[in-house]
Write a structure and sequence with these properties.
Largest sheet: 5 strands, mixed
Number of domains: 1
Shape: globular
Oligomer: single chain
Radius of gyration: 15 Å
CATH topology: 60s Ribosomal Protein L30, Chain: A
Structural class: alpha+beta
Helix content: 25-40%
Strand content: 25-35%
Number of strands: 7
Length: about 160
């Protein structure tokens, strides 16, 4: 069995007039994340971790922001596509850990829903998914309320025979 680990990071600016979506869940807030798709920084980081673990590039390669068909795209739908791409290449997600960095809004009330949404999207048990949130104690762009970032790691397994 082949066991691999991947890492991902993403950040988006907060802006008025957009929904705030993190891990596929809409969070009530006066601002949302600015981006070509729905700008779900947490799922973008997770997709990059998955793709990196499988050595399949990154989300910019698969879903470029220069392609209009991805304008406003649901990152949860893109996550399904990344999961299918992994399966096509003989891999499956073993577990994932996502850390969202935001001064506000407080994300604790939404963590369970985020975890369950990601688990359902990836077709894994919720106990294979960890979602956490933290602040920067008002330091940096997240601390000033200018944006939100996310880090993710995931492990994948393969039953492909090693060459």
């Amino acid at each position: 069995m082949d066991f691999r680990i991947g890492f991902g990071y993403d950040a988006h600016r907060l802006t008025e007039g957009r929904a705030l979506i993190l891990c596929g869940v809409e969070i009530p807030y006066e601002k949302g994340l600015l981006g070509h798709s729905d700008a779900d920084a947490a799922l973008h980081a997770l997709m990059d971790a998955m793709l990196g673990a499988a050595a399949l590039g990154d989300i910019g390669k698969h879903f470029p922001d220069t392609d209009e068909k991805y304008r406003g795209a649901s990152s949860a739908e893109l996550l399904k596509r990344v999961n299918a791409l992994l399966a096509e290449n003989g891999f499956a997600v073993n577990n994932a850990d996502v850390c969202i960095v935001a001064q506000s809004p407080k994300l604790a009330p939404y963590i369970d829903e985020m975890k369950n949404t990601v688990a359902q999207t990836l077709n894994v048990s919720p106990d294979a998914i960890s979602i956490k949130a933290t602040t920067t104690e008002k330091m940096g762009f997240e601390g000033r309320g200018e944006g939100i970032s996310a880090y993710a790691v995931c492990s994948i397994v393969s039953n492909k025979e090693k060459k």
